[in-house]
Amino acid sequence: MNARVSSIFRAKKSPQPATKLAPRFRCLHLAPPFLLDDYTPRYQTLSSRDEAKKRSLAYAHLRNCNLCPRLCGVNRYEKTGMCLIGDKVKVNVIAPHFGEEPCIQGHSGSGAVFMSGCNLRCIFCQNFDISHQRNGMDLTPEELGEWYIKLQDVGNVHNINIVTPEHVVPQVALSVLHAKQLGLRVPIVYNTSSFDSLASLELMDGLVDIYLADFKVWETSSSKRLLKADDYAATAKESIRAMQAQVGDLCFTGDGIAKKGLLIRHLVMPGKEDEGVEIMKWLASDVSKDCFINIMEQYRPEAHVGKKRRKSSDQDKQETRYGDLNRAVTGDEVSVVRQAANKSGLWRFNEPPKHDGFAI
Known about the structure:
Layout (H helix, E strand, L loop, with lengths): L17 H8 L9 E2 L11 H16 L25 E9 L4 H4 L4 E6 L12 H4 L5 E3 L1 H15 L4 E4 L5 H14 L5 E5 L5 H7 L5 E5 L5 H8 L4 H16 L3 E3 L4 E10 L5 H15 L4 E5 L11 E4 L2 E7 L10 H14 L3 E2 L11
Parallel strand pairs: 1-8, 3-5, 5-6, 6-7, 7-9, 9-10, 10-13
Antiparallel strand pairs: 2-3, 2-4, 8-9, 11-12
Helix pairs in contact: 2-6, 5-6, 10-11
């Protein structure tokens, strides 16, 4: 069995008692209408008829894949599209995870399922070894759903956090429906780059409780250069509006754990703070001033950034690829984005996690 995938069964560090975390969660402005007395995952409320329709639609999409803006149109039972994934999913890591936002991870962690592959080609990808590589274990949707149950029952997690699912949406939909039959009862987190098609989000409507969505860059030139996508921002705006329409603003139960809603993340990048400013303005004006926002400052040069390549005109010289991004962000750059968010009327912000990552 793949060592990383089976890491759920390794000894976990003892989590902090919930009582010790409660004061920190009170900083999240928990009050109506963002406070829930109780919560039932959305997939639990689907009728058998709705489930059957989603299964049929998922199989149809696999035969003619249009579930991301690449619109490859391939039959995934016979070949792969740009994402290099067929009718199964390739999973890199399955384990309780403490590296997410505190309101998602809580005191017991989030049941993280990291998919291999991606429909973007971000040159700075912070999870390059997972998203740009095809390492891991091939699973059918049914086998994937069974892992959700193991995470829930063995890992005692607060939710199932499916990371980078944009290219395997039909399989994810089928896995959630299968896990429901097996007794799944925790919320589903759809952890996405926001490079989704509306068809994929329609398929996931009723299955996802929390959309954990990135908004990476604003300018078309940045999208083409850094993400290898023609117009990422246009797609992200359309996708985020659809997510907000489905689940609304982020809501919590009294223990400070998020159960339903949209959480937007923006990674501040070197020299790109003006794009972050535009993203904050758009979220406030076109989505909701009550959006829950995570303005992230942990950018580091990864993937292709900072790598050396020879200049074609001189075989003896090398140049640094994407040299303008080959540094950490400054406090001033982060402050510019945060101030723009405040000025735009946004007020619900995430605090950094107090844990480095996996409990293994």
